[in-house]
Amino acid sequence: MKYYIPAILCSIFIFWLSVMSGANFPETFKDLFSSDKLGHGIAYGTQTFLLFWAFQKSKGSMNTLQMTLLAAGVAFYGFSMELIQYYFFPGRYFEVLDILANIMGIVIIYVIFKLFFNKTTAA
Predict the structure, then answer these.
(1) Which DSSP category does 88 fall into?
(2) Which of 47, 66, 46, 54 has the alpha carbon at shortest distance from 120?
(3) What is the pLDDT of residues 57-73, one digit of tens each?
(4) Cα–Cα distance between 113 and 53 in angstroms, integer?
(5) Over the stretch 7-22, which tens digit does the pLDDT of each residue have?
(6) Residue boundaries of the structural domains of the chain
């Protein structure tokens, strides 16, 4: 369980950032390359890396299916944060580009972890 503490803390930090009041503006596709979206990619990429690292440390190895399920869980968390912002925090919006930025960060870390850090098992 101790290996999961950084991932849990990262999740709490992302939640805190997600519910903070902030300025929201209508989004355009060019916003996908803004510093806000870069922050989303970094935050969810970090969360993904920490979760992969914790799982591998606690189990000894991780196969592709396990990595994919963990990455999907992080993506679902990001999607959930967008819903929470929209439904429970007035003035906040559900932003599809935030979700895309989250997924880009997750995918980048997925590939990096698979190539350089993962001790894979078959399946």
Answers:
(1) H
(2) 66
(3) 998 888 999 999 999 99
(4) 9
(5) 999 999 999 988 876 6
(6) 2-11+32-116
Give the count of alpha carbons within 13 A of 116, CB side only: 7
Please count the helices (runs of H) and the strands (runs of E) in the chain: 4, 0
CB distance 50 to 83 below 8 Å = no
Going by C-alpha positions, the residue among 106, 12, 4, 9 that lies closest to residue 57 is 4
> What gap in Å lies between CA 13 and CA 7, rounded to an integer?
10
| Cα–Cα dist 48/56, whole Å | 12
CA distances from 106 to 24, 43, 50 (A): 23, 9, 11
Half-sphere exposure of residue 75, counting CA atoms within 13 Å on the CB side? 19
